Amino acid sequence: MSKPPFPPRHPPAGRGVPGLAARALAAKAVAGVLGQDQALEDAFDDASLEARDLALARMIAGVSMRRYGTIGTLLEKLLAKGMPRKSGPLEAILITAAAQILFLDVPDRAAVDLAVRLARGDDRAQAFSGLANAVLRKISAGKEELLAAIPPEADTPSWLYKRWSAQYGEATAAAMAAAQRVEPSLDLTVKADAAGWAERLGGRLLPTGSVRLAHNGPIRALEGYEAGAWWVQDAAAALPARLLGDVAGRRVADLCAAPGGKTAQIAAAGATVTAVDRSAARLQRLGENLKRLDLKAEVVTADILAWKAEPFDAVILDAPCSATGTIRRHPDVAWSKSARDIGAVADLQRRMLGRMAGLVKPGGLLVYCTCSLEQEEGEAQIARFLEGNADFALEPVLPDDIGGIEGAITPGGMLRTLPSLLPDPDPVMAGMDGFFAARMRRKG
Ligand SMILES: C[S@@+](CC[C@H](N)C(=O)[O-])C[C@H]1O[C@@H](n2cnc3c(N)ncnc32)[C@H](O)[C@@H]1O
């Protein structure tokens, strides 16, 4: 599908028409991802909507991106002449309206009417408001039949699906694509008494130690948030720091640390942590998170490609990556990345890893991790690192390190979680992000 032109000129706020402002914001957010590679979440940062409308806009935009492949295929089928050119926000309006009709509990009539109003309110889209009305009514009238003709993998970009089939095999790629179509649960890492918090919050204690809740409302309203008893962290994201073992009393460097999920884990485990990140804004969030959790770390704003320090007992490097493992939580990532991005981040990761040897004491541990499903950013990086650093040896991940999920350990002894792991009869309670981690020890 073509990308919507920019900037979309949406009507001011649709004052007086209930629900219009939420739809306008959802369409703007989707247009931002598709046309400008903006992160979906950034669209909601400065939005001045009431909490209810903001939540609705987020939900509509989220499902629009999660099911963008399906919706795009349908629109291509129904628009005989393709998406009209120079139609401004029309495409984003259609995508977000189709998402409501097909996947949300919103009256179809309201979704269609508000989409037509939005189109009429934009000088580039208004000529196509009749077309929008006709297409959306067709979707509403034939939804079951239209959806039945689209395969589940349509919601994963084909370049990515091909890579996953080649890396993991067709059946696993299909299971991963299917898992990403479901809005995931909320996972928490707790400071202490995970079983007690699972019970108190009506959640479930996972074998890995995380607490899982079927919750998609505001986080701050949950018990224990203000008291700093837990933080939000996908079950898979909580595993790499566990590979450091017992860090109590150790000096540990957390590199590429913000917003601090792993810093909090390591500090809560009793280590003296140095958290390094080059983004001051993200480190500010790390500071706020640690303050709420009543945890401490030395915080350093620096580029780790240049940063020097006395060697540590252990180092964890959570390198910047293509983030393809986070698509179930951030479905926009699927549509804003390309194969080229993988090559670029892999090169940066290689350079970062190249500096790690000097930061680990003899006998100390190095854990490298990324939230990517791409082997160039994982297994291949470690193979290259070990080839060039004979004083490091892989220390294989053991089932006990990760709550016994043997399916997450590669034949080579590295951690490789997939969205299709942790199956559950309730799809919302299933799955985990795609993460890679390897543990290496520097010879003493
Ligand atoms: C995957 S995120 C880290 C997530 C974090 N470890 C956590 O668990 O919450 C990657 C981080 O790398 C940081 N980063 C990217 N390039 C960097 C560099 N050259 N030096 C230091 N930090 C960098 C980014 O600012 C970003 O915060």
Automatic annotation (TrEMBL):
Keywords: Methyltransferase, RNA-binding, S-adenosyl-L-methionine, Transferase. The keyword Transmembrane helix does not apply. Residues 165-443 form the SAM-dependent MTase RsmB/NOP-type domain. The active site is at residue 371. S-adenosyl-L-methionine binds at residues 256-262, 277, 318. CDD domains: AdoMet_MTases. InterPro entries: MeTrfase_RsmB-F_NOP2_cat, MeTrfase_RsmB-F_NOP2_dom, NusB-like_sf, NusB_RsmB_TIM44, RCMT, SAM-dependent_MTases_sf. GO terms for molecular function: RNA binding; RNA methyltransferase activity. GO terms for biological process: regulation of DNA-templated transcription; RNA methylation. PANTHER family: NOL1_NOP2_SUN FAMILY PROTEIN _ ANTITERMINATION NUSB DOMAIN-CONTAINING PROTEIN (PTHR22807:SF61), NOP2 YEAST -RELATED NOL1/NOP2/FMU SUN DOMAIN-CONTAINING (PTHR22807). Belongs to the class I-like SAM-binding methyltransferase superfamily. RsmB/NOP family. This is MFS transporter. It comes from Labrys okinawensis. The lineage of its organism: Bacteria, Pseudomonadati, Pseudomonadota, Alphaproteobacteria, Hyphomicrobiales.
